[in-house]
Amino acid sequence: MSKTWSIYKRELRVYFSSPIAYTVIGIFLVIAGYFFYSSLAYYVLISYQAMRNPFVEGLNLMDMVLTPLFGNVSVVMMLMLPLLTMRLLAEEKKSGTYELLFTYPVRDIEVLLGKYLAALTVFSLMIGLTGLYQFILWALGVSEPGATLAGYLGLFLMGAAFLALGLFISSLTENQIVAATVSFGGLLLFWVAGWSAATVNPPYNQVFEYLALIKHLANFAKGVVDTADVAYYLCFTFLFLFLTRRSLESKRWRG
């Protein structure tokens, strides 16, 4: 565990001693903030109109602000998180320090967990800073804490899955741009997998629907925690962490 902790601290130091973390977090917050402002401004506008028009019904903070916000933030995550994972192992290969990892008395799983948890910490900071939006809603007297926590749980699980896939891709190449591009492409394929369900015969259409990343966020974004959705993201995460470990072990077999 001490070796994992050492690698974890080293990776966090690299993130925050370079522009990587600041740039990714900054861009993420600007885009997410724009989406929040747009949704909230529209909700306020419709609320004022409803005060003058008794026939306007169905105003709901969850449907008009939080659900669209979580959906939009998940898209931004798909674009930004590959930038966090692209360097984790690809940079080690490029600089030649990758081979040194296998000369130290450290296990593959310790390298894997140290790097993954560092990326997960930066990601957690990213979505944690968006908690300011909830304080704004609370100040306006329109917060829904239970539904909000469910939505953030969904975002966290989805982000953990994104990082696992990105780490796996980073273990396959020494080019960071390639790692980021392929990671984004892989996430996009899982994102749009459900679109093929309508063109595939049963029972295969259900497989495509189940593989779609965005489908499992829908319930969280509505304030509902379904164990099936939690299990999907956990299985997705563990699968790609397992593949990453096998990728690291293959280096030992070859070398």
Your description of this structure?
With 255 residues, this protein is mainly alpha-helical. 78% of the residues lie in helices and 0% in strands. It is built from 12 helices and no strands. The radius of gyration is 20 Å and the shape is globular. The model has no long low-confidence stretch (mean pLDDT 85).
SSE order = HHHHHHHHHHHH
N- and C-termini, Cα separation? 26 Å
Mean pLDDT, rounded to whole units? 85
What structural class is derived from the secondary structure elements? mainly alpha
The geometry reads as globular
Task: Please state the CA-atom Rg, rounded to the nearest Å.
Answer: 20 Å
Helix count from the secondary structure assignment: 12
- Count of individual beta strands: 0
Sheet bearing the most strands, described? none
| Percentage of residues in DSSP E strands | under 5%
Percent helix: over 70%
Contiguous low-pLDDT stretches (5 residues minimum) are: none
